[in-house]
Amino acid sequence: MSNVHVKSDDVTLPYLVFTRELENMADVTVADGGSLYQLERLQEKADRQSSEFEAAQQEKSDLASLRAKVEQLKERRDKLRERLNHGSHKILQDYLKKEKGRSSKRNYSDSQKQNLLAAVQVFHKRKLVDLCDAYRLTGISVALQGAKRTCFRCETFFNARYHEPYYIEVDLEDNELKINKHTVPYFIPIDTISQRYLNTDIKKFFMVISEHLNAYVARREQVQLCQEQYKEKLEDEISCSPAHDYVQFKTKSLDGVDKGVVVKLIYDKLTLTRPSTVEIQSDGRKTTASVRALRSKEKFFKELYLHHAFAEAFT
Hints:
Low-confidence stretches: 1-15, 26-32
Helix content: 40-55%
Number of helices: 7
Order of helices and strands: HHHEEEEEEHHEEEEHH
Number of strands: 10
Radius of gyration: 29 Å
């Protein structure tokens, strides 16, 4: 087998470790079937980790570029909003000042008063539309708007693609915002969040809701990807709670072990995309060495997405 040459700045430390193992085993003869099989497995694992690293680097680069574009859009939006607000305020103030000077000289008809009230309402409506445009940059947009009712659309995003949106319909009653109806999953505490932020900081309200929704979709999609990619290595389907904040699965026998292992993942908060607690237990005979080996795999599930952690721990 020819030597493997790689650049140290193109690979991660695990890849270098596997490369050294491959070089140390280069003198294994073909007659030694077990060693040859192990060598092929190491080569496949090293190649897979290299491709995953390159994909991760590309994803980081794409995200950095996207963030830069978003920041540019935000800067342009802020400048435009400032000019719009300044112009609208000036026009309205000049009009009110002019009309105030005339008020002592003449009386206003009902139609003139209504026109002035309509102008103020248009100004406030324009402010609301401008606020909605700002939310669109963070995944929030207006789906439908009425006189006293607005329906907001909350986008969800994971693994470089959009997923299903969620809707929140907000009413204005007695100068207070109230949620009329929504499609947010029941396990997300939208009532508690609305009581805290809806009438004090509406931007914060949608940020918190969006964080909960995207974290839920991220956990759900990780389970789905793991189920699809490693179905042949799983004993049954992955079981989880409706919120996907508790996940459990069992693997088939791996690496010559008679019994599989049971993995339990617990997410303490609904805004987490990686578990806070990981338990890995073997159904077979437990020894000090086997327990230590399983515990060493727990860090993968705390640091990586589920389908990536499964590949690192069990393939």
